[in-house]
Design goal:
Helix content is 82%, strand content 0%. By secondary structure, it is mostly helical. α13 (310-337) packs antiparallel against α16 (367-382).
Length: 453
C-alpha cells in the first residue's frame, strides 16, 4: 500500500502544502490559456501571435523568477531551524533583487521586442502583432518578476495558500480584462491582441501589489523590514545566489531550448505551430499538479533539512513522489481518452483541432516520466542540491532534445506529430537521470543523511 494512504498526518501535511501550490500554478497558467482561448476565436494569425508573445513574456519572467528558488530553499531551511530573523533578511534581499532584475528585463524586453520576435521568423502579420504583445507586457516586467519571486518566498516559508489566493485575483482580473479588451465590451474599443496583452499586464501589476502589501504587513508570519531592503547584504545574497544561480541557469537553458524548439517548429507551418501551441497549453494543465507537488517537495524537504529531521525527510520524499505519480497519471488517462474534445475547447479551426488532438494523445505517454522528473528535482533542490537538476536539464535539452528536433523537422522534414515523440523520449531519459541522482543523494547510509543528528 502507498505510504500516503497509510500515514494520515503525512498525507495531510503534503496536501496542505501541495494543493495551494498546485492550484496557484494552475491559476497562473490559466492566464495564458484564457488569452489563447479568447484570441483563438479571431483566427490563426492572432492566435499564433498571442501564443508566441505569451511564450516570450512568460518564459523570460519565469526564467528571472527562478532566482527565487534560492530564496525559497533558504527560507524553508530557516523556518525549519526556527531562525525567523534570517528568513526576514532573505525576504528583504529578495525584494531588492526582484526589482533590479525586473527593471533590467523590462527595458531590454520593451526596446528589443522587434529583435526578439524576429528571431522566430514568423509571417509578417504574426510578427507585427507579437511585437505589440511583447512591448505591452514588458512595461510591467519589474512587477511581474517581483510577483514571481515573492510567491517563491512564501512557498518556501510554507504558506503556499498566500500565493494561491493572489493568483485567484490575478486570474479574475485577466479573464474579465481579456474578454472586455479583446472583443471591445462595456463601450471600449476592440483591441484584439493588444487587449490580451494589456489584460495580462494589469493582472500581474495588481498581483504584485497585493502580495507585496501582505509581506509589508507581516501576513503569514513573515514580515518585510525596510532596513533589509535599503542596502545589499553580501552574505545573504551570496547564499541566495549559491542556491538560486543553478536554478536560474537551469531555467535559462531550458527556456532558450524552448525558444529554439519553437523556432524549429515554426518551419512546420502556421497551422501546425498553432496546433502545437494548443497542445502545449493543454499539457501545461497537467504540468501544474506536478509543479505543485514539486514545490511541496522542495518546501517540506527544506524544512526537514533545517530541523535535521531524517525520518520526516524520508517520509516527505516518498509521499510527494507518490502524489505526483497519482495526479499526473490521471491526466495521462484523460489525454488518451478524449484528446480531440479537449483540443476543441481552445479553437474552432478544424485543421488545428485535428492535429492538436493527436498531439494531446501523444502527450499522455509522457505524464508519468514528467511527474517523476519534476518531483525528484524538487526534492533535490529542497535538500540544497540545485546543481544536479541544472546539469540534467542542460544535458537533456542541448545534447538530446534540440539536436533530435533539428534532425526530425529540418533534415527529415517530418510533421509535428513526429517531433512530439522526441519530447516523450526526452522526458524518459530525464526521469531515469533524476532517479539515479535522487538515490545517490537521499541514501540512508550516505554522507548527506549520515550528517543528521
Amino acid at each position: 500500500m502507498l505510504l500516503i494512504f497509510k500515514n494520515q498526518p503525512l498525507r495531510s501535511t503534503i496536501m496542505r502544502t501541495a494543493l495551494p501550490a498546485m492550484l496557484e500554478m494552475i491559476l497562473y497558467m490559466l492566464i495564458g490559456i484564457v488569452d489563447v482561448a479568447v484570441v483563438g476565436r479571431l483566427g490563426a494569425v492572432p492566435l499564433a501571435a498571442v501564443s508566441l508573445g505569451a511564450e516570450i513574456f512568460f518564459e523570460i519572467i519565469l526564467f528571472l523568477g527562478a532566482m527565487g528558488i534560492g530564496s525559497a530553499v533558504l527560507t524553508a531551511q530557516a523556518r525549519g531551524a526556527g531562525k525567523i530573523h534570517e528568513a526576514e533578511q532573505i525576504a528583504g534581499q529578495t525584494v531588492l533583487l526582484g526589482v533590479l532584475m525586473g527593471s533590467i528585463s523590462g527595458i531590454l524586453g520593451f526596446f528589443g521586442a522587434d529583435f526578439i520576435v524576429g528571431l522566430f521568423k514568423v509571417e509578417p502579420m504574426v510578427h507585427a502583432l507579437a511585437v505589440r504583445y511583447v512591448e505591452i507586457t514588458f512595461t510591467i516586467a519589474p512587477l511581474a518578476v517581483l510577483y514571481v519571486m515573492l510567491s517563491s518566498l512564501y512557498r518556501g516559508w510554507g504558506r503556499t495558500d498566500i500565493p494561491m489566493y493572489v493568483a485567484v485575483v490575478v486570474n479574475i482580473i485577466n479573464c474579465v480584462g481579456c474578454y472586455v479588451l479583446v472583443y471591445g465590451k462595456l463601450g471600449l474599443p476592440a483591441l484584439g491582441v493588444a487587449g490580451s496583452a494589456l489584460a495580462t499586464a494589469i493582472a500581474h501589476m495588481v498581483g504584485c501589489l497585493i502580495i507585496f502589501t501582505i509581506l509589508v504587513r507581516g501576513g503569514g508570519g513573515l514580515k518585510l523590514h525596510w532596513e533589509t531592503v535599503k542596502r545589499l547584504q553580501r552574505q545573504v545574497l551570496k547564499k541566495i545566489f549559491s542556491l538560486g544561480t543553478p536554478s536560474f541557469m537551469e531555467q535559462f537553458f531550458n527556456n532558450l531550448s524552448i525558444m529554439i524548439a519553437v523556432y524549429l517548429i515554426v518551419f512546420t507551418g502556421t497551422v501546425s505551430y498553432a496546433a502545437h501551441q494548443v497542445g502545449v497549453i493543454v499539457e501545461s494543465i497537467s504540468y501544474m499538479p506536478g509543479f505543485g507537488i514539486a514545490i511541496a517537495a522542495t518546501t517540506l524537504v527544506g524544512q526537514s533539512v533545517g530541523a535535521r529531521d531524517k525520518e520526516r525527510l524520508l517520509q516527505s520524499t516518498r509521499g510527494t513522489i507518490e502524489f505526483g505519480l497519482l495526479f499526473m497519471g490521471f491526466f495521462a488517462l484523460l489525454f488518451a481518452l478524449v484528446p480531440f474534445q479537449i483540443a476543441g475547447l481552445f479553437t474552432k479551426d478544424a485543421n488545428i483541432t485535428a492535429i492538436a488532438g493527436v498531439l494531446i494523445r501523444i502527450a499522455a505517454l509522457e505524464q508519468l516520466t514528467i511527474a517523476l522528473s519534476m518531483v525528484l528535482g524538487g526534492i533535490l533542490k529542497g535538500s540544497g542540491d540545485t546543481r544536479t537538476p541544472m546539469v540534467i536539464t542542460v544535458l537533456a535539452t542541448w545534447v538530446y532534445r534540440i539536436p533530435m528536433l533539428y534532425l526530425v523537422i529540418v533534415v527529415l522534414e517530418q510533421p509535428i506529430q513526429i517531433a512530439w515523440l522526441v519530447f516523450i523520449s526526452d522526458w524518459l531519459l530525464r526521469s531515469i537521470a533524476f532517479y539515479l541522482a535522487y538515490r545517490r543523494r537521499i541514501k540512508a547510509d550516505g554522507p548527506f543523511l549520515s550528517a543528521f543528528q
